[in-house]
Write a structure and sequence with these properties.
43% of the residues lie in helices and 22% in strands. By secondary structure, it is of the alpha+beta class.
């Protein structure tokens, strides 16, 4: 059973607001903004195929950003596959970014922050159950925001299966489940490239991934060791060990990133007072901020502001 949506049913000034509500309801909670065109004309169909959910959309260029606060308030443990049939998009996650053009496919993870700017004539966005995909391809969650190699075995079949799934009416639930399982198998085949073991250390480098996450989310005052570990699906002990190999702790690195951000804000005149510099950088305790700032830079934040 498919649900159909179009902005044509809404008056022009409210169309993008309507689109935002529909996409957030069926896909992922995120902040959106319109890029370019003043009048937004979009259409989307939504369906379930066994273990998978699929949204097929066309729209003008617009931007989505899913941050830590969306993940806290609306957690989602699924991975997503974007298949750009026609159009263009830019996807960024985990410190990587890629450009999708017609025929391209890439993964992104609903459990971690990402940015997605897209203007598709037609794109398939397919929700993939994490456990089911990782049981077939354990490295899949580390392959986000990079194009799936079109030369890989299974890629042509995967495109065809996605297009068929978007138009096919399954007679019974069992057929839909079997089809979705076969689609996951083909996706896993397309992802697991020969020689990938040679780069597995880099792709699975927890330290680098968490560093990128910290740099993107340091302004969140709720960010702590537990949140970091949960966002990367590891234990706090595993995360601490990854940083210990570099003679660091995750929270020391977070504090340093926040201090550097507040220093830049003060010295470049981007804030009018110390409190704003502290809060904007993710500090919630002003006395603690002043103390660690002076220890790090040998001066008070107020002294930089006065210059």
């Amino acid at each position: 059973m498919k649900a159909q949506y179009t902005t044509e049913i809404v008056e022009a000034p409210r169309r993008f607001e309507y689109w935002n509500d529909v996409v957030c309801r069926h896909c992922l909670q995120a902040d959106s903004k319109l890029l370019g065109t003043p009048v937004f004309d979009g259409a989307m169909s939504v369906s379930s195929i066994g273990m998978l959910d699929m949204a097929i959309m066309s729209s003008p260029l617009h931007h989505w950003r899913r941050d830590a606060h969306h993940i806290r308030s609306n957690p989602d443990d699924d991975l997503w596959l974007a298949f750009m049939v026609s159009g263009e998009a830019y996807l960024a996650q985990d410190g990587r970014q890629t450009r999708l053009q017609s025929g391209d496919m890439a993964l992104y993870d609903g459990a971690r922050p990402f940015e997605f700017a897209l203007g598709p004539e037609k794109i398939y966005l397919t929700r993939l159950p994490r456990k089911s995909l990782l049981s077939r391809c354990p490295e899949a969650e580390h392959l986000t925001a990079q194009l799936i190699d079109a030369r890989r075995p299974g890629v042509m079949a995967l495109r065809s299966m996605l297009e068929e799934a978007g138009t096919c009416e399954f007679n019974d639930a069992e057929s839909a489940v079997r089809y979705s399982a076969a689609l996951l198998d083909v996706l896993a085949l397309s992802l697991a490239a020969p020689g990938s073991r040679a780069t597995a250390a880099e792709k699975n480098d927890l330290y680098k991934r968490v560093l990128a996450y910290l740099r993107e989310n340091y302004t969140d005052p709720q960010l702590n060791l537990h949140v970091l570990a949960a966002a990367h699906h590891v234990s706090e002990r595993t995360l601490t060990r990854a940083f210990a190999q570099h003679n660091q702790t995750p929270m020391d690195v977070l504090r340093r990133v926040r201090l550097q951000a507040s220093y830049r804000a003060l010295t470049e005149g981007n804030v009018g007072n110390v409190t704003t510099a502290a809060l904007d950088a993710g500090f919630s305790d002003l006395s603690h901020f002043s103390r660690v700032f002076r220890a790090a830079f040998g001066c008070t934040p107020q002294s930089l502001l006065s210059h």
